[in-house]
Design a protein that fits this description.
Blueprint (H helix, E strand, L loop, with lengths): L14 E10 L2 E11 L4 E5 L6 H8 L10 E4 L2 E2 L10 E3 L11 H5 L1 H5 L4 H11 L18 H14 L4 E5 L7 H18 L2 E5 L3 H7 L2 E5 L6 E6 L14 H29 L2
Parallel strand pairs: 3-8, 3-9, 6-7, 7-8
Antiparallel strand pairs: 1-2, 1-4, 4-5, 9-10
Length: 275
């Protein structure tokens, strides 16, 4: 650093986890997991099936308590997983829209839970509909919407639950390739505007690179963070970045790491069957 240069301050982690483990009966889902997320980051998580990604999310959402012996800090202060319940916005893989509620009434559910009147909540939601590509669809019911539109409603509902940390568990996994690509670009636009802190699970390496500031690769069970890669690609991200040399080189590295863990999981499964 040049003399007289003032160093750029590093933001204190919004969430920090150390030595996280989780056991279900005889199955050790997580062990020795360390994770740090800074405010405003969009961090993507990839790994082989069964590596504990969803268990990690359930802990951060306050739905599961990790095994004893861990350290968890939230907003710079010591915390417990159970204390995070209601402090984090969590969107699971399925949209979980209520079929008897129309678009606007599905979207306002978090506000109603927080005590706002339905009329007040609807006014707030109506202002957000255009941003989520839902203007004119407020009276439609879930069965009248495409998969992409349903996910927009679910994401709008998640954003309306005004929490700085958002956990998105494969929100685009069930969509066709074209719709998925459109939703990824749209999500980046919304994230850039709101600057929420996002942890995003995906099985799609292209998606992980295209969306993320950083990518975390998890090991096979018991899961922990094996590899952390910063994504040095300019923002805003455009589709042509997917064919860039930097993108392809990073994809090769991630795929090799994930394949290695998948082979370990396969070998471990085969060993169990032969005993």
């Amino acid at each position: 650093m040049a003399a007289g240069t003032i160093p750029t301050p590093v933001a204190e982690p919004f969430v920090e986890m150390r030595d996280i483990a989780k056991t279900f009966g005889t199955v050790k889902a997580l062990a020795g997991l360390n994770l740090s997320i800074r405010p405003g980051e969009l961090v993507t998580v990839v790994g082989p099936s069964g590596c504990g990604k969803s268990t990690l999310f359930n802990i951060l959402a306050g739905l599961e308590e990790p095994d004893p012996g861990h350290t968890l800090h939230f907003r710079g202060k010591p915390s417990t997983a159970s204390a995070l319940l209601g402090q984090v916005a969590f969107m699971p893989q399925r949209d979980l829209l209520f079929p008897w509620r129309n678009v606007i009434d599905n979207a306002i559910l978090p506000l109603e839970v927080q005590g706002k009147s339905r009329d007040e909540a609807r006014k707030l939601a109506l202002q957000m509909l255009p941003e989520f590509g839902l203007a004119g669809f407020e009276k439609q019911y879930p069965h009248e919407l495409s998969g992409g539109m349903r996910q927009r409603v679910a994401l709008m509902r998640t954003f309306m639950f005004e929490r700085e940390l958002m956990l998105l568990d494969e929100p685009f996994g069930a969509l066709d390739a074209l719709t998925r690509a459109m939703m990824q670009r749209w999500l980046l636009d919304v994230w850039a505007k709101h600057k929420r802190t996002v942890l995003f699970i995906t099985h799609d390496v292209d998606e992980a690179i295209f969306l993320g500031d950083r990518i975390l690769v998890m090991t096979s069970r018991p899961g922990h963070i094996k590899l952390e890669e910063k994504v040095d690609l300019p923002r805003p991200r455009h589709p042509d970045v997917l064919t860039s040399t930097a993108f392809i080189e990073l994809k090769k590295k991630l795929l090799a790491s994930i394949e290695e863990e998948s082979m370990k999981a396969f070998a471990a499964g085969s060993a169990i069957k032969t005993h």
